[in-house]
Every structure is written in C-alpha cells, then in structure tokens.
Amino acid sequence: MLLSLMLFAAIPVTILEESKVPAYTLPDPLVASDGRKVDAEGWKSRRRGEVMRALETHVYGRTPDTSARQAEAVQEVREHDAAALGGKATRTQLRVWPVGRKGPFIDLLVYLPNGKGGQSPVFLGANFGGNHTAVDDPKVFLPETWVSKQWSDPARSDRASEKQRGSQSSRWQLEMLIARGYGLATFYYGDVEPDHPEGWKEGFRAALSPAGRDTVWKDGEWAGVGAWAWGLSRSLDVLSRMPAVDASRVAVIGHSRLGKASLWAGAQDGRFALVISNESGCGGAALSKRIFGETVGVISGFYKGRGFPHWFTARFATYSENEAAMPLDQHWLLATVAPRPLYVASAAEDLWADPRGEFLGAVHADPVFRLLGASGLGTEVFPEVGRAVGGSVGYHNRAGKHDVTAEDWANYLDFADRNMKAR
Ligand code: GTR
Q1: Which of 25, 274, 294, 304 is deepest in the core (most CB within 10 A)?
Q2: Is any atom of ligand 1 closer than 6 Å to the C-beta of 282?
Q3: Distance, first Cα to last Cα, the chain
C-alpha cells in the first residue's frame, strides 16, 4: 500500500490544460550537425539522413536491413473472391512468410474495387484485433495467433472468436473506400509482434536476430513500433506484386500506437505515397517537449507498472522528465515524409494524445515540405473542431473521442483524391 502510494506520488500530474504547458525550444530540422541551415539539396543529400539517424538513436531504434532476404519471401493465396461485398469488390486473403517458412507469417486481407478499370490505389494499415474484426465479412478467416481483449495485457489474451467479427469495422469503413475507388489492405499487428514486453519472442524481431529468443536488446536496436513499421513495408512488398494494385499509390495509415508505426513506416519507406497518422500522440505526431497528456516517461515505462517499454529503443526512456535534453522532437519524424503528402488527425476529446501538440508537430515540419516544393500545411492557426485544413499536409481535429470514424475517413479520401494522383 505504502509502496504503491509512493510510486503513484512519483508520477507527475498529467498536463491537460494549455496554460500549464511549460516553455520549450524546438530544434530546427533544417539545421545540420555542422550548425548550418541546409537548402533543398542539402536536405536530400545529407540532412534527411542525419534526421533519420537521430530518430533511430533517440526514439525507435534501427530497423535491420532485410532487403537481402527478399528472395526468401513466400506467399500463398488462401482465398480469393471476385464477387465480394455483393459484387462491388474483389477479396484476397494471403498468408505471407516475409523471411521464409521458418519465420512467422502475416495474414494479409486485401479488398480491391471492381469495375473501376486499371489499377487501384490502396490504403494499407495494421489492425488491433484481427482481420475478422476490421471488416464485417463472414468469409474473413479468424486469426490462429494470439489476439487480446486487452491489447497490452497477455494475461487477458484470448483466441479469436466469431463474436468479435466486424467489431472494429467502423474504424475501416470498407464500403466507403470501395465506393470511392480505393482498396483496403490490412493485417493483425500481433502477427508481426504481439504487443507486450515479451511479445517480440513470437515475432519478427526474434526471427531476424541471430540470437533469436535469447537476444539481449541493446540501446539503439529496434523495438515494437519498428517491428510493426517493418511489417507494413513487407505488406507493401506483397501489394506491389499484385497486378491490380497501383503500387505507386499506396497510402499507409494507422491509429494510435499503430499511427506511430504508420509514421515510422512512412519515414523509412519512400514507396509509401501518402502517410496518415490518426491520433498517434506521444511518440507519434505530438511534440514531446510540450509534456501535454501522455509523456515520454509515462509511455516508455519510466514509472513502474505503467507504459510500454517494448515500443521504443532504450534511449527514449532516458528523456523522462528531461524532455528539454532531447536533441529532436516529433516534428522531425513528420518532416522525413516530405515532399510526399502527409495527413495528421486528432480528436478533440483525445487530450491524452495532445491534439494541439499533433497540429504543432505538422506546423514545425512544414518548412521542410515547403523547402522541397510541396504546398505543405500553409497555416499556423489551430483550426476549429471539425474543419480540415492544409495543402499537401492535411490536418483536422474531429469532435469526439480516441477512435477512427467515418468523418476521419471522408477527410482522408478527399485528401487522397487531391494529393495521391496517378503517376
Ligand atoms: C495508449 C497509449 C497511447 C496510444 C494508445 C493506443 O494506452 O498511451 O500512446 O498508443 O494506447 O494505441 O490505443
């Protein structure tokens, strides 16, 4: 009792009011390590690489280069139906072993619109509960792997069940996507790595490490967010092999912790034509130095019994209660997407993720987009709730709670219509 009171007392009060945000200074992503501000050429040839190294070192860890293992990838079509959704779509369910059959597999669910002619643009994102939850379709296979009722609590994990079918479908809006000419591809994030501190042993981090399940992770090495981002890239490999997909128009999207993964995937993999962060918050689009809502300390496991130490590389936690010492902030992550289109979205009641901090992440990344010739965000005024703003960097703060809704998707599709043109 006393101990828990002491631990509780050690956690600072969460800042949820703008007036309580401390003064902070943001490092300029365009100022290189030699202290000079770069031009567009300098960003491309040198500075962007420095920013990527900084993001690896201080936040996500380094993703191993697995390009040499591409040839080991195996995929099987488990099911294919050209008359899905009452004939409106073609559904393909694939099982993919990106590093060969000895490694784990990813079950990828793909819907492409029928009757549009030519190749389709696709939104790709990982889902929280299994493919059978993301859409309301009785033909979608149940996952055979770990699924959890309580995403981060393996003690409460469970086998997938029929009862869960379609339970997250409002977050994916499949019918809307298909009607507007876009495909949807999704996989269960637990296929790549179950979301708990020991989950990596079942996933690709162990499979790709020479020491396997005996790996002792060192500072600077990748963690959960990096693994999920890698899974998004391997899924893009699969989409690129599908003749009906326009691989030059694949948008990567993610919500919350998977929004962090979406951004990190978009940063590392230039093939993603559009990058979307839905309420990614701390360690995603939100500026850490504001210390608003969820903080580096809370998320990284600095306070015993809280947080997600397995999401980030070890260095990240050292900035707990010491955000001022961070040589970067999350606007650097957003800047790495430039000049490709980027959409950052918040929800007004989702103060934990710091809507204004997410908007400011985009504001402070904007100079990089404009330097590279993109129209960018083009405003520094936090928009009223429900209004979408921006040019090639989009932003909205939807009314309501932490979620992905039809309103969010309507904005993403409008944005994709404008910004993800056929090349
Ligand atoms: C919360 C976590 C957030 C966000 C969210 C989610 O518990 O604090 O950073 O990632 O989970 O993924 O739903």
Answers
A1: 274
A2: yes
A3: 62
